[in-house]
Design brief:
Blueprint lengths: L1 E4 L2 E8 L6 H14 L11 H8 L10 E6 L2 E10 L9 E8 L8 H12 L7 E8 L2 H9 L3 E12 L2 E11 L1
Parallel strand pairs: 5-6
Antiparallel strand pairs: 1-2, 2-3, 3-4, 4-5, 6-8, 7-8
Helix pairs in contact: 1-2
Length: about 170
């Protein structure tokens, strides 16, 4: 995907991550841990924990992880992971995306997320679920634009920053 940013054409490239990406992936995620309610993690993750997390993904699995880069710098990632631990859920995945703050609003998130969804087409995945901490109009709009529909609303389910947060559950078929 090529995008004009400040009058300069830039291209989003999507690839599988490598262990050298772990610091940048932790940096992106930790921005949301520290500054927002959109993840219910409350402590920053380490580079080492991101390396361990990366090792859980591979190209032969329904659990996929892709990074988006612009000018060879990682600007975000999209992933599909285990939805729930019981065996009968194995054909469902939770999908998620995180972008560096400077990458928001450029269309790169939608392109990266769509790439992930496209890679799940020839797998055993039947359903994808997005779990969105509310309020988050941008994420709800992104999911709707990618074919997700609202299937549930949990109230006061997360506690962070001394308050309770709701989540919206969205679903799409593959």
């Amino acid at each position: 995907m090529t995008q004009s940013v400040n009058g300069t054409m830039t291209e989003l490239n999507v690839r599988e991550p490598n262990f050298e990406d772990s610091h940048r992936l932790a940096e992106i995620y930790n921005h949301y841990v520290i500054n927002t309610h959109v993840t219910f993690d409350i402590k920053p993750v380490s580079d080492k924990s991101r390396q361990e997390w990366l090792s859980g993904y591979n190209k032969d699995s329904m659990h996929r992880l892709f990074v988006g880069t612009v000018n060879n710098k990682v600007i975000g990632y999209a992933s599909s992971s285990q939805f729930r631990s019981k065996p009968a859920y194995y054909r469902s995945v939770e999908t998620t995306i995180y972008l560096a703050p400077e990458a928001l609003g450029k269309g790169w998130g939608k392109a990266l997320y769509q790439y992930l969804l496209d890679q799940l087409v020839d797998t055993k995945v039947k359903r994808c679920y997005g779990v969105i901490a509310l309020p988050n109009d941008a994420s709800v709009g992104l999911h709707r634009g990618l074919g997700y529909r609202e299937v549930g609303h949990l109230t006061d389910v997360g506690f962070k920053f001394d308050r309770f947060w709701d989540t919206l559950w969205m679903e799409r078929s593959i």
